[in-house]
Specification:
The two termini are about 25 Å apart. The protein is mainly alpha-helical. About 50% of the residues are buried. Helices cover about 85% and strands about 0% of the residues. The protein contains 17 helices and no strands.
Length: about 400
């Protein structure tokens, strides 16, 4: 069973690489050729992505709640299969309303296939060893952009953007769909997948959620993750125009971006190498301080190439660690019961903030330029750090004193 467990982890890790690469990271590479061939504006194209991210936030809670009771096999397999079909439909569309409808569907796919649902599966399947398994999975998933950005670029160059989407769909059909359909059988649920939850089970879940919603740790984590992902996403989508405005060369910008991905993986490797596992409270405190420190470097050293690369490494390491913490902090600082529902409830506001952040940053830029954007991002990053530090300061004894179930 132990070996079978690691087979599941590495299989899901490969599926995560495919899902992140084809449904998320590949999008930016299709903007220019679609803009050229279809005459659609860049704002209209990116608006579809924002809509998809918004939908992924809206479905996070019901998906997590479903996995709590039924496991991840049905919903993750359906998500990969639907994503495959929607990529094929995307390859044929010349209608902007249809494109937006496709991204409504892809938003549901994102919610069903990316980290949140797989974290629920691993936490429920391996309650004594979920930290190391989540870390190992994201170690592989961290290479999604490294693999899929050049792969998608090659597909577009050799096949054209429409056939490139078909090629991406095939990677899901041949890799992600069978992994989710075959390897997830019997893992990560508390009852047979065909059995509907009883009234008692539904009442228990609602009771756990009411307890979570009354607890200050839940709200502190919600504020922290919402502020963090809003600021991180805003800066990620505006970093290239910001650096271009400063006169940084294209080669230097590409080089700095190339550091972020390995930085994420490096942060995860450090967590995986800690003897006896890591503390979510300690790792999270370090991760949330990395973002405001990195932003301060951008503000203080606007023309320094060396500091730009230090920024990129800090930016990547912090996000790499926080991705792990995002999957482990609920059972560590709260409790394991109802993990999927609680995790989905935490993901809801942060995913909405992630969807709105690029547009919000553009509004700030219109008012005060990128200097105003950086100071706004810094303020958000500090809010995220303070909220997480508050959550991490609470002990399990404090949780029990508030009537929360123990792990």
């Amino acid at each position: 069973m132990r070996q079978a467990g690691w087979t599941l982890v590495w299989g899901l890790a490969l599926a995560q690489l495919v899902s992140w690469g084809s449904f998320y990271y590949a999008f930016s590479l299709f903007v220019v050729p679609m803009e050229r061939d279809l005459g659609w504006g860049r704002d209209a194209l990116n608006g579809a992505l924002s809509l998809g991210l918004l939908i992924s936030g809206l479905v996070a809670y019901p998906i997590g709640s479903w996995i709590d009771g039924h496991g991840g096999r049905a919903i993750m397999t359906a998500g990969s299969a639907l994503g495959t079909a929607l990529l094929c439909l995307w390859s044929q569309t010349s209608s902007l309303p249809v494109f937006y409808a496709i991204w409504i569907g892809l938003g549901m796919v994102l919610g069903a296939t990316l980290y949140e649902p797989v974290f629920v599966v691993l936490t429920r399947s391996f309650p004594l060893d979920f930290r190391n398994r989540i870390t190992a999975l994201t170690l592989v998933g961290g290479f999604a952009s490294t693999v899929y950005i050049p792969l998608t670029s090659l597909f577009i160059e050799r096949l054209g953007w429409r056939h490139a989407l078909i090629a991406l769909a095939l990677t899901n059909l041949l890799i992600a769909v069978p992994i989710h359909g075959l390897l997830l059988r019997g893992w990560g649920h508390s009852r047979p997948e065909s059995v509907a939850p009883s009234a008692e089970a539904r009442d228990a879940e609602q009771k756990i959620m009411r307890r979570a919603l009354r607890h200050p740790v839940f709200w502190s984590l919600a504020v922290s993750f919402t502020a963090y992902y809003a600021t991180f996403t805003a800066l990620t989508f505006h970093l290239i125009p910001l650096l271009t405005e400063r006169g940084i060369s294209a080669a230097t910008i590409v080089g700095a971006y190339a550091v972020i991905g390995p930085g994420q993986v490096a942060g995860r490797v450090v967590l995986l190498a800690i003897p006896g596992g890591f503390s979510s409270a300690v790792a999270g405190r370090i991760a949330v301080l990395a973002l405001p420190t990195a932003v301060l470097l951008l503000i203080a050293f606007p023309q320094s190439v060396e500091m730009l690369f230090v920024f990129a490494m800090l930016y990547g390491v912090g996000n790499g660690i926080l991705t792990i913490v995002r999957g482990t902090v609920v059972p560590d600082l709260m409790w394991r019961e109802g993990y999927g529902a609680i995790n989905g409830a935490l993901a809801f506001p942060s995913n909405i903030a992630r969807a709105a952040a690029p547009f919000g940053a553009a509004l700030v830029w219109n008012l005060g330029g990128y200097a105003a954007v950086l100071w706004t991002v810094l303020a958000g990053a500090l809010v995220a750090a303070m909220a997480f530090w508050f959550a991490a300061s609470r002990t399990r004894e404090d949780m029990r004193a508030h009537g929360a179930p123990s792990a």
